[in-house]
Design a protein that fits this description.
2 helices; globular; mainly beta; Gal_mutarotase_sf_dom; Beta-galactosidase, Chain A, domain 5
Length: 336
């Protein structure tokens, strides 16, 4: 079939779009942060993105329970792929702006403009201005005929009159059935930094330690981060992969003959956050119900938030009127 785009659709009251070609069917929520919530590989009829198991709600419905900056992101988290600005991790504060977990951009509605709608190519532009930070965000999502790939190109502009610190995270979460014990991860990197605030009883790796990729030699035995343990092992680890030789990673599942490769600019995203909730995220909102990986290109570390990134020198700075750009591409393919 030719490329197509459909906008006569809502999900949980949120404006949604479908982009489609012969290879992929993509669901996009402009009304909620521009989230990519489904990327279905048609050859295997598999959604490669993680779908959250809890009863998430639209941000416009307001807070769930007591207002809590730490939980706003999770209350409204459908899974999938979010672009996180102006602060990754958190909660935190910067330039007098309180920032909840994973900042602000995932909770705001985006305006939509159709850039291309032809048999060869469909492309939509999403735009929004943040409230707590002087950021204008512009995002182009493009699907081309003959390609099993979705491309997300973004620009963030500082509309303020002073320079501001920020961190930028591509919160890409891949899920079952792609993620499974028979699947493997390939990343061209050198170093593993275990998050210093990792405290879960189900963690295998000691907080704040550094290892060489891919096998972490711990007191409890070797941990091979290329492998995904079964859910019965009840594992939950968080690390940042560093010293990237290329901005790329691949998850391959030979049982499905399905792989996913994500490419990103390593000059901008110097770290790849690797979230590993293999049945071991036992606190709210998951309570042991999720089996997935987050493989998340990020400008900065650690997960504690933007203030910590400023302190350790990994935060980015954007000058008045300055613009930073990013292009991330996700492709599905066979494993042969």
């Amino acid at each position: 079939m030719a490329c197509s785009v459909t906008d006569e659709y809502q999900r949980r009251g949120i404006d949604a779009l479908f982009l489609e070609n012969d290879h992929l069917r993509v669901e996009l929520l402009p009304g909620k942060g521009g989230d990519l919530t489904r990327i279905v590989d048609k050859r295997t009829d598999t959604n490669v993105l993680f779908e959250a198991p809890h009863e998430w709600r639209a941000p416009a419905d307001g807070p769930v329970g007591a207002p809590d900056g730490a939980f706003a992101f999770l209350d409204h988290y459908p899974g999938g792929w979010q672009s996180v600005l102006p602060g990754a991790g958190g909660p935190s504060e910067a330039h007098g702006a309180p920032l909840g977990l994973h900042g602000e951009s995932t909770l705001v509605p985006f305006e939509t403009e159709l850039l291309a709608d032809s048999a060869e190519r469909v492309s939509v532009r999403l735009t929004a201005s943040l409230t707590r930070y002087p950021f204008d965000v512009e995002r182009d999502v493009t699907l081309s005929a003959g390609e099993s790939a979705i491309e997300v190109s973004e620009r963030v502009t500082n509309t303020g009159e002073v320079p501001v610190d920020y961190s930028w995270l591509q919160h890409v979460a891949l899920g079952e059935p792609l993620v499974a014990p028979e699947a493997t991860l390939t990343v061209p990197c050198e170093t593993v930094h275990v998050d210093p605030d990792q405290t879960a009883d189900t963690a295998r790796l000691p907080p704040g330690e550094t290892f060489e990729w891919p096998v972490c030699e711990t007191d409890g035995g070797p941990v091979d981060l290329r492998e995904f343990p079964p859910a019965d092992d009840r594992v939950h680890d968080l690390v940042a992969l560093a010293d990237l030789n290329e901005g790329r990673y691949t998850v391959s599942n030979p049982e499905l003959d399905l792989g996913v490769t994500v490419e990103f600019p390593a000059s901008l995203y110097e770290y790849l956050w690797y979230w590993q909730p293999f049945g071991g995220f036992e606190d709210a909102p998951f309570f042991g119900r999720n089996y997935n990986v987050g493989l998340e290109p990020c400008t900065s570390i650690p997960n504690a938030g933007l203030a910590e990134a400023v302190e350790n020198g990994t935060a980015e700075e954007l000058a008045p009127g300055g613009t930073q750009s990013s292009t991330v591409r996700l492709r599905t393919h066979g494993t042969d």
